[in-house]
Amino acid sequence: MALYERFYNHLTKCLQDRDAFNHFKSADDLDYMTEHRGLDQFKDGFLQQILTHCRMLNLNVDTVLTRCQINDRDGAPFLSTIQYHDRTYHISPNTLRYIDKGLHMLLLFNHFRNQSIKILELGAGYGGQRLILGVLCDLLQIKIDLYTIIDYPQVCQFCQYYLKQVDIDVDILCYDNGHMKDLSTHYNLFFSNYALGELPQDVQSYYIHRIFNNVDHFYLLYNNFLEHGRVNDDLLKYHPLILQEIPLTGSDNKLIISDASL
Questions:
Q1: Which candidate, 224, 191, 42, 188, places its Cα nearest to that of 104?
Q2: Is residue 233 part of a domain?
Q3: Quick check: 229 pLDDT over 70?
Q4: Does the N terminus or the C terminus of the chain have fewer Cβ atoms within 10 A?
Q5: 83, 65 contact by CB (below 8 A)
Q6: Closest by alpha carbon to 99, among 125, 148, 137?
């Protein structure tokens, strides 16, 4: 609990102190969220996945990398150095992961191309995946009609503030005191970058009951797999495909997706 207490307190500080916001991606209290150095060891794996996804989506790699650097503009992140052809890029490893996973989602659900979609995210960190998905969807001519974040109030407020810096608005559903409002919209895609797998089984079930009947597809990066010993029984009712995370950033990480996506 002390870890989360520092996390939430620092987010609140960033909303009140511009200097704290300007350096939040390198703050020790937020390392759990930004993972600003730990992911550097996986930069080559992220890049290889990005190259594969771009080829299959017919996207220009240089354009993708250049445009997605906007996520590193604020917060003073640690930057990895990567080489592609004759160019050197300095991009945070967190942004590289967001690009990899964002491209992979849009590749799996390729029928979204040239469509308008609604996206629901559980556990949004600081809002970086939303920013990157916006860039990628624009390149694929996908219009995001609605993007909703589910998280604790402090996180939702921070995401709104971070994304406001680049003129992006998000809808929020706050999970507070063990409750959240029912979904009033049906979504094309629900995803969670590790957040669902970190929750106790009963809290996972709480979200599953309230979310899964209101979404067409899901994409879940799931950690703590061995700790729980299995995927949540309520999630298994939706017949997911359970795959290996690539690159593997944790020894027991899995990718869990809706079976209609392949």
A1: 191
A2: yes
A3: no
A4: N
A5: no
A6: 137
Taking only the tens place, the pLDDT of each residue in 173-225 is 998 877 888 898 999 999 999 999 888 889 999 999 999 999 999 999 988 65
| pTM score of the predicted model | 0.95
Q: Is residue 45 a part of any domain in this protein?
A: no
CA-only gyration radius of the chain, Å: 17
Please identify which residue in the block is written with the tokens 């597809």.
217
Facing residues of 174 across strands? 151
Kindly state whether residue 69 falls inside one of the protein's structural domains. no
- In the chain, the DSSP E strands lie at 80-84, 87-91, 116-122, 143-151, 171-174, 187-193, 215-222, 241-244, 254-257
Is the distance from CB of 166 to CB of 70 less than 8 angstroms?
yes
What's the total number of domains in the chain? 1
How far is the C-alpha of 147 from the C-alpha of 34, rounded, in Å?
A: 21
pLDDT recorded at residue 29: 81
- Report pLDDT digits (tens) over 65-82: 999 999 999 999 999 999
pLDDT at 61 over 50: yes
CA 13 to chain centre: 23
Query: Does 185 reside within a domain?
Result: yes
Range of the domain at 226: 111-261
In DSSP terms, 221 is beta-bridged to 193, 255
CATH number at 126 reads: 3.40.50.150
